[in-house]
Fold:
Amino acid sequence: MASATGTPAARPTALVTGASRGIGRETALALARAGYDVAFTARTVEEGQGVIPPRYSDDGPERIAVPGSLRTTAARIEALGVRALPIRMDLLDRHSVRAAADTVLREWGRVDVLVNNAVAHIAGNHDRFLDLDVDVAARTVAGNYLNQIVLLQAVLPGMVERGGGTIVNMCSGSATTDPPAPPGEGGWGVAYSASKAAFGRLAGAINAEYLKHGVRAFNLDPGFVITEAGSARGGTGSIADKGFDPTPEDAPGRAIAWLVSSPDADRFLGRVIWTPKLVASLGD
Structure:
């Protein structure tokens, strides 16, 4: 793998979505440390502008302030000696998703690694079943599934043409596990979990068609990570009370840096990779 001290032309490139904070930011930094130039997306451009919706519709229309921004992540990436390409993207805006891919390909000409980390959180997508607004469910599916297809369709042809590339899709245990309790009591909403279940089928479809062209797609379950956004929204305590042990925020990034570089990673194709177990096996 190219080192971070190499010339830009010699370094591989990565695109990480949803990287102004949390798992995405830590993943972008992990790939930068591994010698990648990193393009990354988020909605928040400057510090102090970050806001997220509440978890439940009856929490009110307030927007919850959160730290993190494209500018801050860019500075931290560049401090590691590689290039940063911050791009504003809203996963719920299909045009901005296409534009983000176009920007990376225009500026850098290629994407060697794509990490689909961004997730669409909409007020009410964790509501209980009879309270769920179907329009909220539809928007959630658009952001977490349909618009992810748009990004993959933009990046995948170049990987196929070059004969290789790696895609990592950030999955969710809620997609395959029944909630242990109702939303608000340690469980999660069906709008969110169903959208992530659909998203979880994309890696397998890509492998079935493009593995023979050198393109690999992994499903990575980060575990129960308490990010800044999750803490700000609240409700993580009730999930922890149901026996879900928190995963360190930087663990998924460590797992991804290994997946994109190790010759042993192919044994995880076709499986949902449990981040805590993989990271524990890697040691320090």
Q: What stands out?
A: Residues 134-162 form the longest helix (29 residues).
